[in-house]
Each structure stands twice: as structure tokens, then as C-alpha cells.
Specification:
86 residues; mainly alpha; 3 helices; 83% helix; elongated
Length: 86
């Protein structure tokens, strides 16, 4: 356990940020799973589901949760599945 005041604060801040990152990551994964399920089931709103997932991916990059190349790879995979099923 830290003794210095600033180190104690860092522990608190890191814990709070970790919770925020974990929640954002969970939402991101949920949206990607929804998009993949919509593509697999060939549902009518699959394009909308992919658009929402891509938006979440972009938001994760803006927040620093995902690297931009990882985001590009995930978006490309979704786009590829969307156009393959069309």
C-alpha cells in the first residue's frame, strides 16, 4: 500500500478508470456480438446492427480503449461479413 499522498490518489484514480474501461469494453463486445448474430441470422436490421457496432468501435478508439489498427481490423471483418451475406 502506498504511503505518499499522490500515490494513494493514483491508486484510486486507476481503480475508477479501470472500471470505466471495463464497462466500455463490455458494451463494445456486446455490440459486436449483436452485429455478428444479426449477420448470422440474416436479419432485416443487420446493416443497422453493423453501423452501431462500428460506431462503438470508433468511440473505443477515441477513448483509447482500442488501438486504431485493431479497430480497423474489427470494422473490416464486420464489413466483409455484411457484404458477403448481401
Amino acid at each position: 500500500m502506498p504511503n505518499i499522498k499522490s500515490a494513494k490518489k493514483r491508486v484510486k484514480v486507476i481503480a475508477a478508470k479501470s472500471l470505466q474501461n471495463k464497462a466500455a469494453n463490455s458494451q463494445l463486445k456486446t455490440e459486436i456480438k449483436k452485429a455478428n448474430a444479426a449477420l448470422e441470422n440474416n436479419s432485416a436490421d443487420k446493416a443497422v446492427a453493423v453501423r452501431v457496432a462500428v460506431k462503438k468501435i470508433d468511440q473505443a478508439v477515441a477513448k483509447g480503449i482500442l488501438h486504431k489498427n485493431t479497430a480497423a481490423r474489427k470494422k473490416s471483418a464486420l464489413d466483409k461479413k455484411l457484404h458477403a451475406s448481401a
